[in-house]
Design a protein that fits this description.
By secondary structure, the protein is an alpha/beta fold. Helix content is 33%, strand content 18%. The mean pLDDT is 94. The structure holds 6-chloroguanine. 6-chloroguanine (6GU) binds next to β5.
């Protein structure tokens, strides 16, 4: 997979691309990341990329022409047609289903928004999708680009060390994950839940399912879709609700 990132802050990506799973994915050749400075696609002497908003108001807006020039240039560059994504707090929220979709693309272009926004005609006429990473405001799309990259890299077939650990995780079944424990058995007076020490795999499985359901019910009830639940799950939820 090839990911092109269009940004006003190329230096932002220097060390993150060398570390952790993104670094590994790049070294293994599972993913190729290319960083482009948006300013290089401006045409005036001052390399202007922004301007004041029509209609007034505070802050500066990214002008459409440099972004359009960059995208028209990148479209001519191999390999093949890209999926163009604008990173903006006005986008649709990133979730694991969207990550999966993106991870299947041969080529992505991630545009990092900046300042108060991007001229809407770029979003409307040059982008396939607009994505937000959550309901809070960042000063630019760069951290969001790294979030997308990390989430997408770890789904590339070649990358993850232990392929099983992908399925059991939070969000794969729409629920938050159950809690994890490792040694020591008692940490600062707090013991590990007994059931995990029994070696009874069926009891462990049941306990973990209950933990996942109750935690999700408590803090992210919107994630629970009845269609995805077994009769056992529904019984557990009825018990949880009673408490
Ligand atoms: Cl993608 N960009 C910015 N600037 N803020 C955000 C965001 C993106 N997602 C959540 N907040």
């Amino acid at each position: 997979m090839v990911v092109d990132i269009l940004t006003l802050a190329p230096g932002y990506f220097a060390s993150p691309l060398q570390e952790g799973m993104i670094g590994r994915g790049i070294r293994q050749g599972a993913i190729r990341v290319r960083i482009f400075q948006l300013r290089e696609f401006s045409t005036d002497r001052h390399r202007t990329v922004d301007d004041r908003p029509f209609g007034g108001g505070a802050g500066m807006i990214l002008k459409p022409e440099p972004i359009a020039r960059a995208l028209n240039f990148l479209r001519q560059v191999p390999p093949g047609p890209p999926q163009v994504v604008l990173l903006t707090p006005r986008g649709r929220p990133l979730d694991q289903a969207l990550v999966k979709k993106l991870s299947g693309k041969r080529r992505l272009i991630l545009i990092c928004g900046r300042y108060e926004g991007v001229d809407e005609r770029i979003a409307a006429h040059y982008c396939h999708d607009q994505i937000s990473i959550g309901d809070y405001v960042l000063s630019g799309g760069e951290p969001a680009a790294l979030v997308v990259l990390d989430a997408v890299v770890r789904l590339q077939p070649q990358v993850l060390g232990c392929p099983e650990s992908k399925d059991e995780e939070s969000y794969e079944d729409g629920l938050l994950e159950y809690p994890h424990y490792t040694r020591p058995r008692i940490f600062e007076g707090h013991p590990v839940p007994e059931v995990l020490l029994t070696g009874d795999h069926e009891r462990v499985r049941h306990w973990r399912r209950r933990q996942a359901l109750s935690r999700t019910w408590e803090i992210r009830p919107g994630l629970i879709r009845e269609e995805g639940l077994t009769p056992d799950d529904l019984q557990l939820i009825r018990e949880i609700k009673k408490r």
